[in-house]
Amino acid sequence: MSKRKPNHLRNKRKITSETAVTLLYGTHAVRAALENPKRRVNKLFATQNAANELQAICAKRKISAEIQTSGELAALLPADAVHQGMVLDASPLAPLSLEDAAASGKLLIILDQVSDPRNVGAILRAAAVFGAGGVIVTKRNSPPPAGTLAKTAVGALEVMPLIEVTNLARALETLHKAGYMSVGLDEHGETLIEDVSKDRPIAVVMGAEGPGLRRLTRETCDMLARLPVAESASGEAFATLNVATATAVTLYALTR
Q: Which secondary structure element, helix H or strand E, spans residue 137, and what is its range?
């Protein structure tokens, strides 16, 4: 295993923005990507201890790790990144089209400009647990499918389709034509989420924390629903639950 840095990373304290969207780090994210035959691996960087832990997976994929110190790995990543001894440069997964996602008939999650990668990662994890068919995000104002998002998803990025669309309102119309009912989560929704009819496939729409659903998104949804809230917390539902937690509760209500 070579200790020499590749040319595109040598003598650079930070990776470029183009390379950043392909990097995965952290034990769960890297292991899941290496175990995913659909993920093309470009290069694995690891400390000696981490490389030893990944030896069996690397042998199966017929790749070798380039040994780095913990500090050298940290220099490849944002300052707050926790790499746990391994960084993987891997090509993005082949995207699933909106039409193919709709054809599954499974519950879909739509994120209306949810920009925090930790929230999106946690939502992917919840989507995988509850058997959703995919998570739909906008191409703008959404985090890249790597880095913090992948680490927070702890492997869910490899099994849960992350579908990018240009226009959310048009995406909703496409789903409506495919037979889906769109349910926007809103604290002022007239219907409790547990009372939403399940006789049609459902696309649940979650807004960003603070602003919530945008006006056009809200108007395009078939209906608005809210989470049940204890009387003592009335009026503060989305102040006490962040969007990732609210999504998990919503998925439970719609799939139980």
A: strand 134-138
Contact 87, 24 (CB under 8 A): yes
Level-2 CATH architecture, domain 17-90: 2-Layer Sandwich (3.30)
pLDDT tens-digit map of 57-93? 999 999 999 999 999 999 999 888 999 999 999 999 9
Question: In the sheet that 23-25 helps form, which strands lie side by side, from edge to edge?
Answer: 23-25, 86-90, 41-46, 65-67
Give me the chain's average pLDDT, please.
Answer: 89
Q: Which two tokens stand for residue 19?
A: 């390379």
Query: Of 132, 128, 139, nearest to 101 (Cα)?
Result: 132
Domain 98-255: CATH class, spelled out: alpha beta
Q: Where are the domains of the chain?
A: 17-90, 98-255
User: What SS3 class is residue 92?
Assistant: coil
Angle at 97 between CA 91 and CA 102, to 5 degrees: 140
Q: What's the chain's length in residues?
A: 256
The span from the CA of 243 to the CA of 142, in Å, is: 14
- Provide the whole-model pTM: 0.86
State residue 44 phi and psi, 5-degree precision: -115, 125
